[in-house]
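call fold(seq) -> tokens
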Amino acid sequence: MSIITRVGTTARWSDVVIFNNVLYTVEVPTILEVGLKDQTKEVLSNIAKILNENGSDKKHILNVTIYLKDITQIDEFNQIWDKWLPLGSAPVRACVEARLANPRYLVEIQLSAAIINTDAQVKFMT
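ret:
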């Protein structure tokens, strides 16, 4: 039987949900006084940490949806994304313009990734 694991769960959301060795997460920036470039770098750094702590990495991202406050900034976003993502490991991706929950958010990223090291996942959860 597969178990659903929730990490950082509040009444409204979980930071991470894991099911069948697939990790699901969403990240938003916490530093809001900066532009898209710095918010994107922060979000991607946090995602890399979440992946690592749960037995995955950037090469194992399966699917990503990127929400930008202003889609005209997609080239600026892509410059950072392209440097961050390992060559040859591009996931299925959608990038859309959206009115985000906090008007100071310029980017929000939702993704799923395969877990390749279940020992790391167990260590993180305990």
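The helical segments are 36-53, 74-84, 118-125.
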